[in-house]
Amino acid sequence: MRVLNFDDAECVKAIPSLSSTPNLEELSFSNCESLTEIDESVGNLRKLKILNAFGCSKLRSFPPLKLPSIEELNFTSCSNLENFPKILEKMENLTKLELDCTAIKAIPDLFSAENLVELSFSYCVNLIEIDESVGFLIKLRLLNAFGCCKLRSFPSLLLPSLEELDLSWCSSLENFPEILDKMEKITRLRLQYTPIKELPNSIQNLTRLRDLEMVECGMLQLPSNITLLPELRHILFCRTPNQDEGEEKLSWMESSNSTLHASQCTISHGIFPNLFGWFSMYMEELDLFRVNFRFLPDCIMECLLLKELNLDQCHNLQSIRWLPPNLETLSVTCCRSLKDLDLTILPGSTKEYYNFRRLIVDNCENLQIIKGIPPEGLSATNCLSLPSSYISMLLNEELREVGRNIWRFVPGSGNCIPEWFHPCNNGNSSVSFWFRNKFPAISLCVFLGALGKHQIAFYFCPKLEINGNTVNKWLLENKKYWFVQEAEADHIFILHEKQMKYENSVNEALVRNKEWNHAKIFVDVYSPRGWTEIDMQIGIHVFKEKNSMKDVQFTNPYNNVTGESNSVDSTQQSGTSIVQVNLKRISHNYSRTF
Known about the structure:
Blueprint lengths: L2 E3 L8 E2 L10 E3 L8 E2 L11 E3 L19 E3 L21 E3 L7 E2 L10 E3 L8 E2 L11 E3 L19 E3 L21 E3 L20 E5 L18 E6 L11 E5 L3 E5 L7 H9 L5 E3 L20 E3 L8 E2 L8 E3 L8 E3 L15 E3 L8 E3 L5 E3 L8 H7 L4 H4 L4 E5 L19 E5 L6 E9 L5 E11 L2 E7 L9 E3 L3 E5 L5 E2 L14 E10 L5 E11 L9 E2 L22 E11 L5 E2 L1
């Protein structure tokens, strides 16, 4: 007999003598919950390769082991097993030892199992000691000590084959083990929920470490010696303050190959330049949410590949007077101290290589100066301190042609949309026009305002209908900027050609053998806060630069009767049409098309 299986045998209370089966290679009695006794002959099966005692919850002891052929040994969930069995002979073939969820108090000398590849003793809540031999298992690849809450120390490590080390939830472990020499195989290190306060300088011996997780550890700030790890690409650093520290010291930081996120992170002055110098070679996204500084650190200029920069809720940030050379998007929402923002081209840069495109400054209540206009997009919701002269410049007719790719969401000026959208208060619920050949390049303008002094929260979706066929919703080029805003004053949203995308092809809605096609633009407005009264105006502008005005009309070309419901005589030559709708109500569970 080579295989013997007692799995799930609830009535089995003892494993009898197996002396008559000397050739046994596999023995399994997992989930024998009534098992309390194992005959000593089990420890003398010299040809046994696999021994599985998983889930024998009443088993308190195991006979001494003399198993020279053993390859896998599993005592997982033997929750009353307090002592590892004595090893009487070398187990040179043992590659996998599982002791998870047992009651053992000490990991014994394992020099007799020097070829171990996997060693796991997670959730051993009574474990207080690990023999130093564990740190010298040269073939060990996986070492898992997750959840050993009473473990106070860990032996020094010289594990050249180790690939993964998990010390998470070792809630009494205050010191990280010394790394005695280079360990070039380990790529991931987990230290979540440990009181470890610092990493030793020998951490630099983990030369290939790529992932480092330090969630709710004892460190007050990101350790500076992580800059000694040349291949580190992902960091997760998060710490909740204790009762005495207060909310402002909550820290969270995460990085990836091209992204670095830091939330309310306490980063020491000395490490900041080193840290960013370390990331600057590859970083494309940088998130410094609620990081406490007054001015943008100069070292960020070294991030030559940086495309997106998030400084949201950096409440002490006062001024930004330069941008990294290849930055495309800047978000500085809710920066209540920000007063000055300079978007102009850096000295030595040229317009050809200036990549900045989008700016989001929502709820920067004290922002007074923005130098320059982002080429593609600006959102400035509730920036009520911006001077009217700057808002007027943003809405200036000169941008009608040269700035057709800019989307803008800014405080309203004069309770109406820009003058180059000539008003037409005819009471209709949509903007309507006719076109032939191809769909024209247009700009959409929406004025939304609260009736009364209360704030309004809303979002809206423009829709297009051609010849009675819906071409679904327009989509923003980047959905990240499709948002819900709570406005304290009237606001104007201008969406241009580049940001208008269609879920279905416009050509599919065109009618064959018909010269003119009828287009209607609707705007659906939604409120997440129930019934809200709003004042809305919508309008379009056709760009002459890309369209022949002979191919676009605002009156029905098949109808010679003047006064068509959507005709706007005063704006036909300018290619603009407006509809104004007042005193409408919107709801979170009901939307009305305006």
